[in-house]
Amino acid sequence: MRELRRKNGWSLKDVSARSGISYSTLSKVENNKLSLTYDKLILLSRGLGVDMRVLFDAALTPDESTVPWVSARRSVARGLKGDDIETPAYRLSFLFEELSNKRMEPVVMRLKAQSLKDYGGLVRHPGEEMILVLEGAVDVCTDGYEPLNLRKHDSAYLDSTMGHAYLQAGPEGALLLAVCAGGLPQDVTKARAQSKERGILGRS
What we know:
Elements: H1 2-7, H2 12-19, H3 23-30, H4 38-48, E1 83-86, E2 90-94, E3 105-111, H5 116-119, E4 128-136, E5 138-142, E6 145-150, E7 155-159, E8 164-168, E9 174-181, H6 186-198, E10 202-203
Parallel strand pairs: 1-10
Antiparallel strand pairs: 1-2, 2-3, 3-9, 4-7, 4-9, 5-6, 5-8
Helix pairs in contact: 2-4
């Protein structure tokens, strides 16, 4: 990180502004006093304008990071089955769980909450996400916008750092596909880890 920063003539404050990561955190990273989480590594690589691999491979130059890289991996999900987590607001089915270090997190959501109170309020987390309604109708609630009603096969794309919630908008229930890039809500990540530890469906 220090090498990339100096090559571009950036101070730690510049990198902080570009990445959204605090100055103190970046200083600790450069001095080997702190390791970044995956979400923060994504923010840092975007802020520095390089592929994340450059931050780990000293032999890889920033110029080489622009060369297309093919992992040649593939995964298939039959139907909508996946590792499940259930909360009072929704049931989540994570797809392609056998793949590690995915850049996207595809999740099928069966909505149950019909109000923000039932959902637990607006959530915020790093990254961006898109949703596609598969069944029923969904009310998308976000900071700064009026609720958006989506019907079957409607879709939306949003900044995940903006407060957001997905509510069931009709009596028939609602099913949607959400694809998150850059992170998941903290409560979902925690419930997911707990369910894997127990080897059963996680409930919160």
